[in-house]
Amino acid sequence: MRVFSGIRPTGELHIGNYLGAIRQWIELQEKAECVFCIVDLHAMTTPYKPGELQKNIRDLAIVYLAAGLDPEKCIFFVQSEIKEHTELAWLLGTITPLGELKRMTQFKEKSKKHLEYINAGLLNYPLLMAADILLYQTDAVPVGKDQKQHVELTKEIARRFNNKFGKVFKEPKVLLPKVGEKIMSLQNPKKKMSKTDGPHGYISLFDAPEEIKKKIMATVTDPGRNIRYDPLKKPGISNLLMIYHIFSGEPIKKLENDFKNKGYAELKKSLAKILIDSLGLFREKKKELDQREVYIKEVLDRGTKKARSLAALTMENVRKKMGIF
Ligand code: AQP
Fold first, then answer.
1. Which of 52, 81, 139, 141 fits a 20 to 30 Å CA distance from 42?
2. Average pLDDT over the chain, rounded to whole?
3. Pairing relation of β-strands 33-38 and 2-7?
4. CATH class given for the domain over 2-180+293-322
């Protein structure tokens, strides 16, 4: 089975990115051929600082390594290093109706969020994502729930291409985590946790213990004192219980019981401790990797070489089928 996924180098990674995507990747690298990308071209579709992009790419490579991805078991590389991604995205655009791109939830949400920056790249994001996935003959794409719609569109595009020009692409399926597919913002539990929403809404994988404690204690919760998992009526507390459950391994029912006659503050204090302990390892590994510039470059270069040969094979086939050889 071939697996592909990627993350935008747009800043600090948070526990939502970890639980929705990376945690699945770590399991998958043991049983599938995995290709994990740092999708820098996607990062340019929302406001960004060119002077910070290279640092963000390097930091994301460190996250991949610190989280436990093993470059001996999977390929990882930077998207813009392989020109086939943009070439295929263009070609896929010629067979994709405009209406399908306009109805994508991410396009609508990000257009609302960045009114001054509604660029064509944002609209075409799913085409580039489809190219990323289809170039590697991907069977499965492990992502959080917010990206499900894009993977479904990719499948549709692959099917349309194969019907029109002859079979080239596999039709990929989406892989959502069993739990944690959508971790909510700490400041607004009705919205998903997001890197670009400001640091108070998320816990970064590298936050210091005192920051973790401060952010968890300041989490927006719900009226009342009852600690009960009910995402509709109690979105704030349910989000905290879900995070607690995944990091501690304790069933939610047991947590509800343990905190039955205790207040929200008790739950928050205990969760902060769990997070501080769980994320301690990331911080240590990051410190070590920060000193290993040459190694990180080598890992990415090696990944680029492997990915490039896979991408070139698919592209040769696409070009032939579309009549541009
Ligand atoms: N809150 C979340 N819960 C579960 N999974 C999540 N993902 C993102 N947020 C959550 C998953 O993380 C992967 C990487 O996402 P991305 O950086 O490529 O883009 P994104 O979905 O736009 O992530 P952010 O954090 O919201 O970043 P910004 O603020 O830059 O847009 C994906 O698999 C995603 O599903």
1. 139
2. 96
3. parallel
4. alpha beta
